[in-house]
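Hi P.,

Sorry for the delay on this. The queue was packed all week, but I finally got your sequence through. Input first:
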Amino acid sequence: MDKITIIPNYSNFLNKGIGFADYENVVDSINLLRPLYSDYFKNINAHVSVTDFNSLKDTMLIYFGNAQSAPIDGHVVHTLLFEHIPQELTSGNVFFDKKCAVIENESSVDKCILIQMRCASGTIMDIGWYFPEKNVLLTSDWSHDNYAISLARFIKNKIIEGLNLKPLNKTKVSKIRHTPKI
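Then the structure:
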């Protein structure tokens, strides 16, 4: 079984004078997104730090921080661009916040797909990186508030289709009837 080490990152909230109670409310909003993506990822977390990117598998990290000494890098092999999103959904800036970006590195063994969105202002913003070989999706702040969650819900089907996500194999436990030997 893969072990994933994730460290909650409280420093960003404390530096802005937001207390732990507020932090819990922000983290709880991930529960509104988990059901949408739980068929595709085993682990879905928000506002966390990654200590070992190489150990991640079948994971979606929303607004992730990189606790490694070196940034996460990837060889971008494809770009998925979302356009024609309703203006009221892209007018909030928090959805596009990033703590850590994936650094484009041609020599990286980790191939990734850059996910971008054209905002209401016409600007193209990075909103995520998908690593198909690991089935790892790293995103900007999709779970921050109701506006961000609405936008994440709006693009859900486009994400699944555009990244060609497949549901994880769910292990089914079958009940076997044992007939006693006579």
